[in-house]
Amino acid sequence: MSKQTRTRRKQAAPTKALCERVTSLIADYLNGELDAKTRAAFEAHLSACDNCTAFLNTYRKTVRAVQSLRYEELPPDLQSRALQLVRKRLKR
User: Fold this and answer.
1) CA–CA separation, 64 vs 83, rounded Å?
2) DSSP for residue 2
3) Where are the beta strands (DSSP E) in 10-86?
4) Cβ atoms 56, 64 nearer than 8 A
5) Looking at the whole model, is its pTM more than 0.70?
6) Cα(69)–Cα(67) distance, rounded to whole angstroms?
7) Which residue in 15, 63, 21 sits closest to 42, CA to CA?
8) Residue-by-residue pLDDT tens, the chain, 92 positions
9) Is 70 helix (H, G, I), strand (E, B) or coil?
10) Do the beta carbons of residue 19 and residue 54 sit within 8 Å?
């Protein structure tokens, strides 16, 4: 059994509320916008929570995938629907 596995077992199981709070901070974490204390608490939670770590990794991959898309690569129908949505929201 690895040291990391033993350490994880010694820590209390994360609560749903704590996991929800952590996941709400992911964008700020990835953008380097968390203060040092919050970042340390965030990373401590990740070291004990496989679910939040998996969510963070999936979030990172999703951001990379979306950033790699080019508007011109979207099918014409999707381009049109996206423009309609943006125009609708701007009118609000």
Assistant:
1) 22
2) -
3) none
4) no
5) no
6) 5
7) 21
8) 444 444 444 455 668 888 999 999 999 999 999 999 999 999 999 999 999 999 999 999 999 988 887 767 778 888 889 889 888 888 87
9) coil
10) no
